[in-house]
Amino acid sequence: MKNRLFIFGANSYLGTALLNNLKNYKNIIKVGRSIDGLYFDLESSDPKDLNQHVSNGDIWIFLSAVSSPTKCEMEFDYSFNINVTKTKNLINWLTKNGVKVIFASSDAVFGKKQGISCDEDAPMPLGAYAHQKALIEKFVKNNTLVKVARFSYILGQDDKFSSLVKISEERKKTLDIYIGFKRCVVLLDDVISGIDSLIKNWDSFNFKYINFCGPELVDRADMANILREKFFPNFEYISKEPSEKFWDGRAKKINLGCKNFTKILGRRPKSIYQI
Question: Torsions phi, psi of 22, nearest 5?
């Protein structure tokens, strides 16, 4: 790949994983607020500051966002400014300069939908965070330089849930796990493979929206049991009902179809039981 690959939000869980695993790209650039890469603050930086750094044909993986559903509910104006206003401005500027954008959306855009949500289905968001992501999906609908990656929960060995499991085992503490969550959890390795394929075969995929998801619905107890079986044999947990307040801005179940993700991977995505 001759053009440059920018990872915006490179210090996030997924951003770090992409940096560590997409090493076959010679021109990969870390973007964010850290001093060891290209500095850009979505809230305060001007897209024109990127004039000397990006050019036609580059690819920008757009991970940066206010991603906590709770924070988006409690600090709506702040999150809307970053997740919608500033995000629109940056995407608009990038694509006007010929930069291809992979925008990180979320399965949460289908929070109100019953049944299986396919790639092309219209969003039915639940909560502020999901509504903000859905607004960007609508904004880029007719922009041929943007593809939308809707991520379900990404399971690896360093994600938030796995880290809690690891710490609980190390400290010999029983972890409280909320019941009720069901997602088509996707393995980190599949996400990395999917992004890699999308970058390399951009023009071969004539669709815009991709549900980056696993092949079946699982809950947190399923995840805990798999992690205990594979990595943390002494881990213990108890299942608990969360308060009703916990569900503000959160859907209990989101079921996704993975047709386009399967095309990108060249196979069905793996189950979490194959981690």
Answer: -95, 50
